[in-house]
Amino acid sequence: MTQSVELALERIERWQPVTNAFSQVYAEEAREEARSERTGPLAGVPVAVKDLFDVAGRETTGCCAGYRGNVADRDAEVVRRLREAGAVLVGKCNQHELAFGTTNLITACGPAHNPFDPDRITGGSSGGSAAAVASRCVPIALGTDTGGSIRIPAAFCGVFGLKPTHGRLSLDGVMPLARSLDCPGPLAATAGDLGLAWRVLSGDRTGSPPAGSVAVVGTDRCTDEVHGAVEATAAALGRLGVTATLVPDEVRDSPLAWVEVAAPEMFRDLGELLARRELVHPVIAGFIEYGSTQALERLEQGRAEARRVRSWLDEQLSRSDAVLMPATPYAAPRASDDEIETRDGERIDVHVGGPSTFTRAINLAGLPSIAIPAGRTDEAIPLGVQLVGAMDSEPLLLATAAALERLDERFTSPVPPEP
Q: Residue 6: is it exposed, middle or buried by C-beta count within 10 angstroms (0-12/13-18/19+)?
């Protein structure tokens, strides 16, 4: 146990200057815990959690200066479950401020950097968690996913990430963004570790065979390399005996609808920050303010789109076990990039929400989704895809990811060069 924690702390010391993945490191406490007798499925395993999960006696800031000094008096429920399973918490991870963003560049803790190329973004908002796992500082980390914030950084950093069915894991002790969309979930370097983390967090011991059929979303709203990753995944599933059916891309309007649903909820829970907005990034403060003035009809339009997306996905899932689609429209861009051109000629932004082009729809629908590594670009930057399932189909998604991982090295988490 002690050896695993020491190795994690050594790697954090080596990688932190490169990635800035951690906002807090609990070195001495972790060593003390590791020396104590621990039992359970995660006995002695070093883990990390995003900086919006409460940890008793530690600040929960959401990497926002406005919440400095906000010390938790008890662990979040999901953190408690990790500890109960024997895990050793080595620190908290950097995140996009208040979880509202997809780059992890806006943060009071300084930007997070991609382990495969520090000039590139990790994705957000759980970018620190993904970078910590990708650099093998910890095998498992917790993130949250409100509009793609587990799946985006998982894809950009080449790890596995699970966004559960909405409401399946407790939000007790988790700083909110939009409660009707927020989902805690794990990121891990292997499908097996992701499944282990899921069982610990959920208590779900249900087994499942992999998917037997998938609906593949045909879209050109992505780069050639992402398109190729989806096609390669469909072909690999075919080698596993999975039937694939091509379906049209019907989630184009979801990103804008997501804003209309999330804005008033963010104002409801975080509106107090407007009284000290000098401590909040202007982009974040502006969105909170928008939520305070949003017309009711805009919210209703957002909810109507959410119902349409859910109906469309349910229709696909009535005929197939899962839906395969890009996790992101492009691989991790450079922090200096403003837009990336896709196959259909559309230019998708990098900093406003473009990385969530394909993920926000799944939050609107409340369905589970898993991000799976799916190869690398010509520049050796990770690519990822996502599989979406029906309500409570996490075991099927995990089994399918594990089957792909066993089948082909393309679907394993790559290891970045040592700094």
A: middle
CATH number of this structure's domain 213-252+301-407: 3.90.1300.10
Active site residues: 50, 125, 149
Give DSSP secondary structure letters for 67-88: GTT-B-SS--HHHHHHHHTT-E
Beta bridge mates, 142? 49, 186
Contact 145, 178 (CB under 8 A): no
What local confidence, expressed as pLDDT, does residue 253 receive? 81
CATH class of 2-202: alpha beta
Contact 373, 384 (CB under 8 A): yes
For helices 394-407 and 224-239, give the axis angle rounded to 10 degrees.
90
Residue 80's alpha-carbon distances to 150, 170, 297, in angstroms, are 20, 11, 40
Residue 211 has a pLDDT of: 98
The model's pTM is 0.98
Closest by CA to 385, choosing from 244, 187, 227, is 227
For residue range 94-107, what is the model confidence (pLDDT) as tens digits?
999 999 999 999 99
- Which ranges of the chain have pLDDT less than 70? 1
